[in-house]
Amino acid sequence: MNKRFQILVTFAAIALFATTFGALVVQAQPSERAVPEAAAYEAVLGKSLDDAEVADFIASNRCASKGPFQVCNAVGMALLIGEGQKVETVYLYPNTIADFAAYKGTLPLGLSANDNMANVEDKFGQPKVQHAPQAGWEPGLPDESGTPDYTHYWAMYKRFDVTIVYNSPSATDKGATIYAILVSK
Question: pTM surpassing 0.90?
Fold first, then answer.
């Protein structure tokens, strides 16, 4: 009887060990409710709405159709659908505004959510003399600009296919922060 008791205790210990270890393995795996990876605008830009990756992006990010836009509030993006039902422009909202969460992905061209107009012009600038950077730096002024809504200054950098929308209507407010970044294809 003593031998049977030892076998029974051994099986019980193995069962207890397996149950405990199995629970730890399950806990170590990421849950389905984990925060999703940041949506990457590059995955949809220039692609058709019929593209499987675009359709999956729109469905998984619960985007809503509003006129020519697919609005993806939860990931801080809006997609402008152009000719041929292609994603022509992606609007990125790097900071939480109105109904949009802050875009968590990598911003284009080394931009940061904390950049102001002066920082952007520095990042988009170039040396005054191409072969002599010590001569100084020219600010990266926009190719075109305007204030179409009388609330936000829009700086269009056609050479980069990017428009920066600032939270100020003034082109001289170098402290104005980024409201939105429009990336076109």
Answer: no
Is residue 142 located within the same domain as residue 168? yes
Question: For the chain (length 185 residues), average pLDDT per consecutive 10?
Answer: 44 40 41 50 94 94 95 96 95 94 94 96 78 66 93 95 97 96 95
Longest CA span, the chain: 95
End-to-end CA distance of the chain, in Å? Answer: 80
- Joined together, the tokens standing for residue 5 give 């008791």
- Determine the Cα–Cα distance for residues 172 and 10; give it in Å rounded to an integer: 79
Q: Looking at the 3D structure of the chain, how many domains does it have?
A: 2
Tokens of 50: 């019929």
Q: Which of 44, 78, 105 is the last residue in one of the domains?
A: 105
Residue 107, classed as helix, strand or coil, is: coil
**Is there a contact between 148 and 162 (Cβ–Cβ < 8 Å)?**
no
The Cα 45–Cα 184 span in angstroms is: 7
Residue type, 96: T
